[in-house]
Amino acid sequence: xxxxxxxxxxxxxxxxxxxxxxxxxxxxxxxxxxxxxxxxxxxxxxxxxxxxxxxxxxxxxxxxxxxxxxxxxxxxxxxxxxxxxxxxxxxxxxxxxxxxxxxxxxxxxxxxxxxxxxxxxxxxxxxxxxxxxxxxxxxxxxxxxxxxxxxxxxxxxxxxxxxxxxxxxxxxxxxxxxxxxxxxxxxxxxxxxxxxxxxxxxxxxxxxxxxxxxxxxxxxxxxxxxxxxxxxxxxxxxxxxxxxxxxxxxxxxxxxxxxxxxxxxxxxxxxxxxxxxxxxxxxxxxxxxxxxxxxxxxxxxxxxxxxxxxxxxxxxxxxxxxxxxxxxxxxxxxxxxxxxxxxxxxxxxxxxxxxxxxxxxxxxxxxxxxxxxxxxxxxxxxxxxxxxxxxxxxxxxxxxxxxxx
Amino acid sequence: xxxxxxxxxxxxxxxxxxxxxxxxxxxxxxxxxxxxxxxxxxxxxxxxxxxxxxxxxxxxxxxxxxxxxxxxxxxxxxxxxxxxxxxxxxxxxxxxxxxxxxxxxxxxxxxxxxxxxxxxxxxxxxxxxxxxxxxxxxxxxxxxxxxxxxxxxxxxxxxxxxxxxxxxxxxxxxxxxxxxxxxxxxxxxxxxxxxxxxxxxxxxxxxxxxxxxxxxxxxxxxxxxxxxxx
Lengths: 405, 230
Ligand SMILES: Nc1ncnc2c1ncn2[C@@H]1O[C@H](COP(=O)(O)OP(=O)(O)OP(=O)(O)O)[C@@H](O)[C@H]1O
Ligand SMILES: [Mg+2]
Prior knowledge:
heterodimer; A: alpha+beta; 2 domains; ten-stranded mixed β-sheet; 13 helices; 12 strands; 53% helix; 22% strand; B: alpha/beta; Rossmann fold; four-stranded antiparallel β-sheet; 10 strands; binds adenosine-5'-triphosphate; binds magnesium ion
């Protein structure tokens, strides 16, 4: 169509202005792409760390456990449940846990701890606790009086590998639970506050400690694709079909962490919105300038029989074409930047603590979102902003335009 | 409808400006017949541009009516008027004439493209008209690469090529030196004689007036004299 040909060529009439307008759109597109790439990369990493290290993607408890965790809310027959869970699509693995608060003693030092009884074999398949051991080793497969503690706790209790720790808690039968455990491994010297008091013992030992015969408090599930965890949680819930058991995605298990993350993401979108407004104003300004300069030309075009709608189309298309070029340039830059960030990252001098974790690298990820969201934002801004000037140009009456020549 | 192409009946145009009324045209009557080669002359402010604009439907009369090819153009509006102008009237302006981003050929093709004329037909018509206006070999140049006279020749070609009923030109030679202007008029007259195209143009220039077959003189918005010439 001749109208689109004119629109395209018009871009090159004021090269400098088009270049500036285009750079603004390309720059915006580039920034948005990195923004989203970093968001996806960092939150992806964050979620990954959070879920793979601790919570898993989905957790199963007795009803009400999350609101008020007590040692009495026990799930019976965890192996049967686990086999059911394993059969659900998207489930990679599962691991049972026993949990109780306890008091730990080493010499005259004492501290509150969260004792977590784990199945060393299933847990190693499921979470990364095993990989986080900096010193010593992981729990043996057989039930022994061994314990893995965090580096902070080791410092507080002044214990090292091989030292003994006494744990005191209350058993389910009301008895006083107490036992001696020797430190097998120490985890996470890089770790911040989250899970600093988590101490791991063999699940069988935890059962004996709390006088629990068979059940567990928690089943942790890791999925193949964690993005679908909410859906998978409902599938599992359906399959288990047990009123007294609740299946929760990590977003519910760690609601506070999830809300903090959502707030953070919202803040990022607000920044993107503000940037978009700035770009929109810049583009609008350029388009209005075009209209002013070409009034006579539009007058001639109208006089010789061009319809108002065709003039309107010409204006909008010119901006759209420029935005398309800008988007291509911006996205190429964005993809390269995101790729570089994902490969090399930016290492921070001072790690920052967020949600109880320490981060020392800013990373990014090339996601589909990081491409189509910036493109959609820029192109819709371009269209939106060129509509009012387009209407104005379409309304130009040939006589007035020609008189003003 | 005999061979009257444009019938201007009792057309008045009043501009209201700051409370002062300007009577640009006063109950003016004028007939233009098929095949004419007519100049409208008159002092500045006598209403030439206003008359041409009203005849072409670019402007509406305050009173009276204009018929073009049997249609009441003074009553038409919007898209209908746009399409009518596109299909029945050729325009040549004093300046700001061509689309700067299109080559001479594309400028000439523009109206035919809006009309949806097929490619072969377009090609034949363009090469014919390029020959008529003496622009062979320049069809790929942009307007900025052409002289003023050459640009006006492209404008003539553009107006001619869609085969309108009449070509209206408001001071087509005002921006040209007199010899270039005269040769432009010669091209127009040749097209008038060879192809029977009706031309109506306004001018200040007596050399241009001399080339017209009919000369209408305006004064204060009315026809002062109207004479046929050799
Ligand atoms: N938009 C307008 N508003 C007010 N007055 C106008 C307007 N357009 C034209 N006029 C007045 O109408 C009268 C006729 O103007 P017009 O442009 O038709 O004259 P013209 O014969 O074409 O003059 P020129 O030879 O200078 O081009 C003039 O007095 C002019 O000032
Ligand atoms: Mg005039």
